[in-house]
């Protein structure tokens, strides 16, 4: 196959460049996908700046994608050329989404319903996958609320707190908790996102700008001082038997019947759960009960990703998912 265009990092902690890159051939169990849209995640700029996860360079970063099936390897069932699909890749395995074509295991690809466009579909996989893994998967991967991914399991009468509800992961966490009948669902976020977060299922939105954590005890049972991190804040709110899930690294805790579980990098760590999770997402998309993030489309194709990652590093993005269109001219 001829070369494609990709956003490459030539060396560890280097600078991104758009260059030619080989189009891969699908192996057993794989599909080749023409990437129509790819979303940016905070881990992308952190991987470049810190130099973790990737061992071989030049490298292609990127996790979220949507696009069209271009080729199907022998033995793959359920997909054919032209199918519209979405999913989450894993750049540490040499298959990032900041390129025009990627390979994916067919078992981890989800068909996009006709009602969903490529841009919205690309906004979902990492945020949804991280929220679902953290909330639903059995320990030690997650909180174990429902490892079968059957969102109809009823948790009515239980309260939930989402710190950072306007983030991509936070938005999907709120929706999953709503689907499982949690109430109240309280989130700590910017006030400008209040109506949107309530439309997703939040019952209370505490304005993080106007309300220091030391002033929130009337809205949430007990918050700690403003010098606490979100992880410590969430752990302090747990009643006996409660579970907090953090999406950054750290040590798990089990103190007085309260558990703090750390997860990172989505659902590739448990193949069985990951397959069930993506099948569940397919059902939820068809039923319209899980909605995508709000998005901002970046200009200039793959090259636009560079500016988008800089904005994320500068903390200049809130409440939206940045999405690039790899097939567009750079």
From TrEMBL:
Q: Which organism is it from?
A: Roridomyces roridus
Q: Which InterPro entries match?
A: ADH-like_N, ER, GroES-like_sf, NAD(P)-bd_dom_sf, Trans-enoyl_RdTase-like
Domain Enoyl reductase (ER): from-to ranges: 14-324
Name this polypeptide is given: GroES-like protein
Signal peptide feature range: none
The record, for Pfam families, names:
ADH_N
Q: What is the lineage of its organism?
A: Eukaryota, Fungi, Dikarya, Basidiomycota, Agaricomycotina
MF terms from GO for this chain are: oxidoreductase activity, acting on NAD(P)H
